[in-house]
Amino acid sequence: MKPALLKEVIKSIFSKPATIQYPKELTPVELDARGRHYPDLSKCIGCSLCMIECPANAIIMKKIPEGYEAPKRNPKKIYPSINYLKCVYCYRCVTVCPTNAYVTTSEYRLGTPEPIFSDDLSLKTLVSGGKSD
Amino acid sequence: MADGDTVEATKALEIPMLLEVPVGPQHPALHEPILLKVYASGEEVVRVEINTGYNHRGIEKLAEKNTFYKDIFIVGRVCGICNTVHANCYVRALEHLLGKEPPARAKYLRVLAMELERLHSHMLIEAVMAEILGFDTLFMHIMKDRELIMKAKEILTGARVLADYQMVGGVRRDLSSEKIERLNKILDLVEPRLKYYMKLFEEDVTIRKRLEGVGSLTPYDITSHGLLGPIARASGVSTDVRLHDMYEVYSEVPYRIVVMDGKDTLARMMLRWEEAIVSLEISRYILKNLPEGNAVPDEKRLPRVFPEGEVYTAVEAPRGELTYYVMSKGGTMPYRVKIRTPSFNNIINSGFSYIGHTIADVPVILVSYDPCISCMERITVVDFRRKERKKLLLKDVVRGRV
Ligand code: SF4
Ligand code: SF4
C-alpha cells in the first residue's frame, strides 16, 4: 500500500503555485472573451433594437446631452447606455445591432461599489466621431 | 407518601426515539442549498426527509414573459454548470417550431461545447467528493486541472462558465484553426490527468473504504424511482438520451455508452471518470473532423414571430435526461416553457437510499448523486413531511422505507 498522491505532492512542492494573485496579478483571458463593450455613437442610429433585445434589461436609451453634436444618421438623438452591473455579457446587443456599432473588449475588471455605465466611453466616441462625420 | 394518595403529574419526560440531524440548507458538508432532515438511531440513519425550495427563482414564469430569443439566455442561467445543455435543448425546440435545421458545422460545435461541459461538470463533482471525504489535496488538484477545461470553454465560447453559445440556426461564434490547435493541446494535457485520477479512485485505500458498498441502488430501485443519468448507468441500467435520441451529431461521433455494475457510490464516481474520458474522445474527434461551412447565423435576419405549435426535446445533461416542453400560440413569446431537470428526480426520489447507512455517509451519498439545486428549484416545492403519529419499531421503519 503506498499513498497514491505522494509523487504528485512532491512535484507540487517544487513547482510554481497554480493560484493567481488577483488583483496584483491579472488573470489571463482570451482577447475575444466577452467583456466590457460600448456603443460607438458615430455608428449608432438610435434604433433602440439593442435595448429591446437585451435579456437582462441592462440598456436604457438616453438623450445625447448638450454640448455633443449628434450625428445626422441619428435623427432621434438618443443613444444606448449600458448598466454594466446589470449586464450579463451575452453580447446579444452586439449581434443584433444593424450598424455593428458596438466596440467589444475583453475587459473583465468591473467590480465596483457604485453603478457603472457605458456613457463616458460612448460619448468619447462621439467627440471624435462627430468631428469626422 | 401513603398508599392510595394520588399525585397529579406536572411534567412528562419524553425520551426521543430518534436523533434529528438537520443537514443543510447551509452546512459545511453540503455545497448546495438543500435541507436533508436526517433521523438517526445512534449512528444509523433510519429516515431522511428532503426539503427544497431555498433557491427558487421562477424561471419558467420568466420565460413566458420574455421573447423566444431572450429566453435562450434566460434558460442558460437555470444552472451555471450545465448552461449549454439547457440552451441546446431550448434552441432545438425553437428550431423544431420554425422547421429550421442548423448546418453540420454548427451541430458539431454544439456537441463540442456540451461535451466540454460534461467533462468539467464531472471533474467538479469528483473534486467535491474528494473534499467531502476530507481529501482536500485531491480536491485542489482536480480543480486545478478542471481549470484547463474552463479555459477550453473560454476559447470556444468566449466565457468560462456561461457560454451563451447557441442560437437558432447555429452557434454564435466560429472556431478558427489556430483555436483548434490550442484546444487540442489542452485536451492532450487533460487526458493523462483524467486517467491518473481514475486510477487514484480505483486504488486509493481511503477513497475505497468510504465509497465502496455505500448507497447501493439496485436496477429495480432505479426504475421504480425514476433515477436518471450516471446514477442509473452505474447500477447497470443503460439509459442515455445521446444513445436513444441521437440528437445533433451523436450518431456520427465515436460515442459509446458507459454502463457499470457496481451499483454503489464508488461505481458512480468511476463511471463519471470513464464518461469524462469518452467526452474527451468525442471532443478530439470533433476537432479533427469539423465540417467546413458557415456555422454562425445572422441574428438580425432570424424570424421574430414563431408559428403555433408544441415541441418536446430532450438532451443528456451531465446529470441525466433534461427535457424541455415549449408551447407556442404564435407571436413573439412562448405560451409555456416546462423544464424537467434530472436533479429533480435524482435528489427528491432518492431519500430511501440513505437508510441503514451512518450519518457520515449521508453527504457522501448525496454528492454521488451530483446534486444541482439551482437546476431543480424552478419546480413546485415537494414536502415529504407527514403529520402521522404511529408507533413502530425502528427496524420496521427501516424496512418500510419511509
Ligand atoms: S451583453 Fe447582453 S445583457 Fe449586456 S447589454 Fe448587451 S444584450 Fe444586454
Ligand atoms: S442597436 Fe445599434 S444602432 Fe440601434 S440603438 Fe443599439 S447601438 Fe444604436
Overall description:
The complex is a heterodimer of chains A (133) and B (402). In chain A, 24% of the residues lie in helices and 12% in strands. Chain A contains four helices and four strands; from the N terminus they run H-E-H-E-E-H-E-H. In chain A, the strands form two sheets. A two-stranded antiparallel sheet of chain A has the order 1-4. The C terminus of chain A is likely disordered. With 133 residues, chain A is of the alpha+beta class. By secondary structure, chain B is an alpha+beta fold. Chain B contains 15 helices and eight strands. In chain B, the strands form three sheets. A three-stranded antiparallel β-sheet of chain B has the order 1-2-3. A three-stranded antiparallel β-sheet of chain B has the order 6-7-8. In chain B, strands 4-5 form a two-stranded antiparallel ribbon. In chain B, helix 2 packs antiparallel against helix 3, helix 5 runs antiparallel to helix 6 and helix 6 packs antiparallel against helix 11. Chain B is globular. At the A-B interface, helix 1 and helix 3 of A face helix 2, helix 5 and helix 6 of B.
Q: Radius of gyration of chain A, Cα only, in angstroms? A: 21 Å
Give the CATH H-level superfamily of the domain at 59-305 in chain B.
Answer: Cytochrome-c3 Hydrogenase, chain B
- What structural class should be given to the helix and strand makeup of chain A? alpha+beta
Strand line-up across the major sheet of chain A: 1-4
Structural class of chain B: alpha+beta
N-to-C order of helices and strands of chain A: HEHEEHEH
* Average of per-residue pLDDT values of chain B: 83
Q: List the helices and strands of chain B in order.
A: EEEHHHHHEEHHHHHHEEEHHHH
CATH architectural category of the domain at 59-305 in chain B: Orthogonal Bundle
Figure out the total of helices of chain B: 15
Q: Return residue spans of chain A where pLDDT drops below 50 for at least 5 consecutive residues.
A: 128-133
Give me the count of strands of chain A.
Answer: 4
Total number of distinct structural domains of chain A: 1
Strand % of chain A is 5-15%
The oligomerization state is heterodimer
By CATH, the architecture of chain A is named: 2-Layer Sandwich
